[in-house]
Amino acid sequence: MRDDSALGVMLARAAGEELLRVREVSGLEGRALGDAGDAAAQALLAGLLAEHRPGDAVLSEEAKDSAARLAADRVWIIDPLDGTREYSEGRADWAVHVALWEAGELVFGAVAIPGEDLVLDSSSVAAVPAGAPDAPVRLAVSRSRPPAVTEPVRAALNAELVPMGSAGVKIAAVVRGQVEAYVHAGGQYQWDSAAPVALARAAGLHTSRIDGSPLVYNGADPYLPDLVVCRPDLAGPILAAVAGERDGGTA
Predict the structure, then answer these.
(1) Is 134 annotated as a binding residue?
(2) 79 known ligand binder
(3) Which of 86, 169, 222, 234 is the most buried (most CB within 10 A)?
(4) Where do the annotations place Mg(2+) binding (predicted)?
């Protein structure tokens, strides 16, 4: 019997180890290092998937897309290096994403944070505990370019902004209880969120588009520009704040 969860964890960990190796031995820096890391992690993941799941389709940021995945029953959605800037700067807040979509749903997700020697996966993640009433709310935001939607959400929740790197790291931070919410509306793709969203769902968190509609994966257009990941009790206030901003014509 195939164990997709064990394979997914292995893939995420192996790609993370390869990225650390490239950063240590390549002698590259800046954009050249990021490009080399992207290429090395993509090659490793593609090779392992071809070896272990040759009949499955793959959607990856670093590979040419194929319409064949739209007729496939199983699709691996991967981001070999989420947070290329952070990786190339020698930081730890970057990730590797490995998700499995099957028959219309995400069924597995693993997020490796190699800089912390950590792999979180949907088959073993613990449920996020409910927040205490009136406890402070922390909102994960981009360290370089927070989207405009951040401010109305911050104001509605009286939240503390916590800057950090990649999307996977931000969603993992909600899962880990380091922040309570992550809201994005600045442009992303399916590979940016598939694995961390599968992880968040397994942890009992709310996940949706910023209009409250479901996040849908393996769509023909890989563009999936916005999302909300948060504790369930915060979903109503966050979606209301976003809706109010959009209705006001300023977002």
Answers:
(1) no
(2) yes
(3) 169
(4) 61, 79, 81-82, 192
Question: Per the annotation, does 180 bind a ligand?
Answer: no
Is 82 flagged in the annotation as binding?
Answer: yes
Q: Does residue 143 surpass a pLDDT of 90?
A: no
3-class SS of residue 105: strand
Domain count, the chain: 2
3-state secondary structure of 153: helix
Dihedral over alpha carbons 74, 75, 76, 77 (to 10 degrees): -150
Which residues lie below 8 Å from residue 180, measured CB to CB, with a gap of 6+? 131, 137, 138, 139, 159, 174, 230, 231, 234
* Residue 121 counted as an annotated binding residue: no
151 lies in which domain range? Answer: 138-247
The DSSP bridge partners found for residue 142 are 164
**What's the whole-number mean pLDDT along residues 136-154?**
89
β-pairing, 181-184 vs 138-142, is parallel
| Global pTM value | 0.95
